[in-house]
Amino acid sequence: MPLKIEEAPGAHEGASLPEASTPASLGQMLRARRKEIGKTMKDVAREAGLTEGFISQIERGISTPSLISLYNVANALGTSVDTFLSQPPQHSHSMVSHAGERPGYNVETKERVYELIERGFPGAALNGCITHMPPGYASELTSHEGEDFLYLIEGEMLYQIDGKDYLLKAGDTLHFPASLPHRARNVGAGPARELWVGTTRIIKED
C-alpha cells in the first residue's frame, strides 16, 4: 500500500494535516523495494548521497527523510517519489499559483508541510516548493544534482553548505550548487517558511 501523504488546502495558513501513516510504513516499503532489487543499505546510501546509518534509521522508522532525501532514495531504488504517494500531485501546468489554493503534503510528520508549486509549462526546467518547518526542525545532510535557490519567507534558519554556516532571516536568499553537501536547521523561536526553487525534478512530469 502506498505511503499516505496527507493533503490539506490552505497549508500556508498553518492548517493542521490529518495524521499520516506510521513511520514504520515508509521504512517497510523502502526495505522491501531495496531487497526486491538486491541492493544493500550501503549501496542505497552511496547512490542517494546519505549515510548508511540514516538509511537504516529510515527503514526502522526512527527517522523521517526530507522530501529531497526521499527523492534521492527513490532514485537509488530505481523508482520515483510518486511511488510512495497515495495521492500524487496533479499537474495542470498553471503559470499562476494563488495563495490558499496550493495543497499541502507531508512525509509522515504533520508538522513539516510541503506546498508543491505547479510547473508553468510542460518541460519547464525550474521546480518550486514552499516548505513549512516547525521550531527545532533539523534536516539530514544531503546532496543532489542541479542547483538550489532559497528565499526565506518567515523565521530564522541556519543552513550549512559544504561545511560553512549561513544564517538567514526573513527576506534573505541563498543560491548554491546542490551537489555540495547541505542541511538546514530552524534556529528561531517560531516556525519558518522557505521558498525553494531548483532544477531538481522531485515530482515526475505528467
From TrEMBL:
Pfam families noted in UniProt: Cupin_2, HTH_3
InterPro entries named in the record: Cro/C1-type_HTH, Cupin_2, Lambda_DNA-bd_dom_sf, RmlC-like_jellyroll, RmlC_Cupin_sf, TransReg_Diox_bact_type
Annotated PROSITE patterns: HTH_CROC1 (PS50943)
Compositionally biased spans, kind Basic and acidic residues: 1-10
Keywords: DNA-binding, Plasmid
GO cellular component: cytosol
Gene3D superfamilies: Jelly Rolls, lambda repressor-like DNA-binding domains
Superkingdom classification of source: Bacteria
Limits of the HTH cro/C1-type domain: 30-84
GO MF annotations, alphabetized: DNA binding; DNA-binding transcription factor activity
Region of interest (Disordered), ranges: 1-24
UniProt keyword Zinc-finger, yes or no: no
Protein's organism: Ensifer adhaerens
Stated name of the protein: Cupin domain-containing protein
SMART domains with a match to the protein in the record: HTH_XRE
